[in-house]
């Protein structure tokens, strides 16, 4: 999503942002989970269905975000732990308004798709999946202990997720394809500029394969943050990115890529 548009929206609607949105979502899902497991409520109550919405069950728009994960207590606790970890990290990185906007766009896209397939029940699994994809894009080297024993960098899990979504899109039916598009829609909107920059960088690297680049000294850094000055030599585990809205090739560390002031030539 264009940074200027987000800035304008935040100035206008920022005061309505809900801080710690992840905590509220998990609390609501826990509440519904207890009701389901105790037999006081049917699981279908929190499932989104445009057919039932049109029949008058509009309260499903409010219960849909609180649809809990799975039936197993262990799986639910693990899913909530990951959602809290990743959602809180995104909110800390973006701020409450941008994180709220990311969740809201995913929610609205899913609701819109539901009206295209009114008889198809829809859960919020794909919205949670988009949070995972955003976290993995921003923190690709974060290590997750798979099964609590096997350390795996999250970028490889994200790659498997993208491959799985691609398989569903190619092999699934029309409803599945629409849900996959809804699940990655907010990711593509938010990271459009980053993805364009990555494609341009890959294109430049392919074009330069025909010649041998100059050899760098061992003490020479490849990336440097324009704001704080740290480099890939002083902080080898830091992920550096280049801002497509700044003039020239200006790199930033994870801490400043979203918080810096854009540098532009004055004409």
Question: What's this entry about, in short?
Answer:
The chain has ten helices and four strands. It has 267 residues and is mostly helical.
Describe how the helices and strands are arranged.
Layout: H1 3-13, H2 21-37, H3 50-54, H4 60-63, H5 73-94, H6 96-116, H7 125-138, E1 143-146, E2 150-153, H8 154-171, H9 174-190, H10 192-207, E3 241-242, E4 251-252
Antiparallel strand pairs: 1-2, 3-4
Give the amount of beta strand, in percent. under 5%
Distance between the termini: 26 Å
Rg calculated over all Cα atoms: 21 Å
Can you give the helix content as a percent range? 40-55%
* Class based on secondary structure composition and strand pairing: mainly alpha
By DSSP (H or I, 4+ residues per run), the number of helices equals: 10
Structure commentary:
By secondary structure, the protein is mainly alpha-helical. Helices cover 54% and strands 4% of the residues. The protein has helices at 3-13, 21-37, 50-54, 60-63, 73-94, 96-116, 125-138, 154-171, 174-190, 192-207; strands spanning 143-146, 150-153, 241-242, 251-252. A two-stranded antiparallel sheet has the order 1-2. The chain has a two-stranded antiparallel ribbon with strand order 3-4. Strand 1 and strand 2 (150-153) form a beta hairpin. Helix 2 (21-37) packs antiparallel against helix 5 and helix 7 (125-138) crosses helix 8 (154-171). The longest helix is centred in the N-terminal third of the chain and has 22 residues, at 73-94. The relative contact order is 0.09. The mean pLDDT is 83.
